[in-house]
Specification:
alpha/beta, Rossmann fold, 2 domains, disordered N terminus, 7-stranded mixed sheet, Arc Repressor Mutant, subunit A, single chain
């Protein structure tokens, strides 16, 4: 399976998904696992029986170090960091969490606890590792996230000036550049607003909406003015 091929050399991987697809993702990993680790033993035992999957189900404290395990991270509760330290010593550990059940305040700590991360949200799938840009690492993640969300219109315009993209492409590149996940619920209203204002145009390619900048000169002027204002504000703050 493609996912398992990607992760075959990964010791400690995080897979973030939706509540709607977490069961399907967990089951796909169990074919190549020694044990499934969860606090919801009865629920998952029923699920495995229904799908005729034979895999040992264990509580977090019962997993052995030499086992290749798949972990129901969403069942670990607030003790997740204690257990994640243990999974680092496993032969292989794939920790599956539902992003719908994660407090945003702990998301950065959760990502940083793993060697690799796979994100499967709606139609979005991306693989990331810890080779992040030095500048991003040195900044406060909360500040970066707030800034990206605040400046989302301008960032989107800048990205689309380089080349047309789909909504999924934009979500991926925003995460790759800033390590900030912009949900479809935030992205598409912003795209629709830019389209309504005459800055973007949309065309369909293979059932995907591809967005491109319609008024390039206007978009470039807007961005230049924005940069100029931000530069003045930065100088003021540094002087203060």
């Amino acid at each position: 399976m493609e996912i398992n091929q990607i992760l075959c050399f990964t010791n400690h991987c995080l897979h973030l998904c939706n509540s709607s697809n977490i069961k399907k993702i967990v089951l796909s990993y169990l074919v190549d696992a020694d044990a499934f680790v969860t606090n919801n033993v009865e629920e998952w035992k029923k699920m495995l029986d229904e799908n005729e999957i034979k895999c040992l189900i264990k509580k977090p404290g019962d997993a052995k170090q030499n086992e290749r395990v798949v972990i129901d991270g969403s069942s670990l509760g607030m003790d997740f960091e204690k257990w994640e330290l243990k999974w680092k010593k496993q032969s292989r550990a794939i920790c599956v969490y539902s992003i719908d059940k994660i407090d945003p305040s702990i998301l950065t700590r959760l990502v940083n606890a793993h060697d690799k991360m796979l994100l499967s949200i709606d139609k979005i799938r991306m693989l990331s590792d810890k080779n992040l840009e030095r500048e991003i690492n040195e900044l406060n993640p909360e500040i970066i996230e707030n800034l990206v969300k605040k400046e989302l219109k301008n960032i989107i315009l800048s990205l689309l000036l380089s080349k047309p993209m789909s909504g999924t492409d934009l979500v991926k590149i925003l995460y790759q550049k800033f390590r900030v996940f912009i949900s479809p619920g935030m992205l598409y209203p912003t795209l629709h607003e830019l389209e309504k204002n005459g800055l973007l145009t949309v065309e369909y390619k293979l059932k995907n909406k591809i967005y491109s900048v319609q008024e390039k000169k206007q978009a470039e002027l807007l961005l230049k003015d924005h940069v100029r204002v931000n530069s003045l504000l930065s100088q003021f703050l540094l002087n203060e």
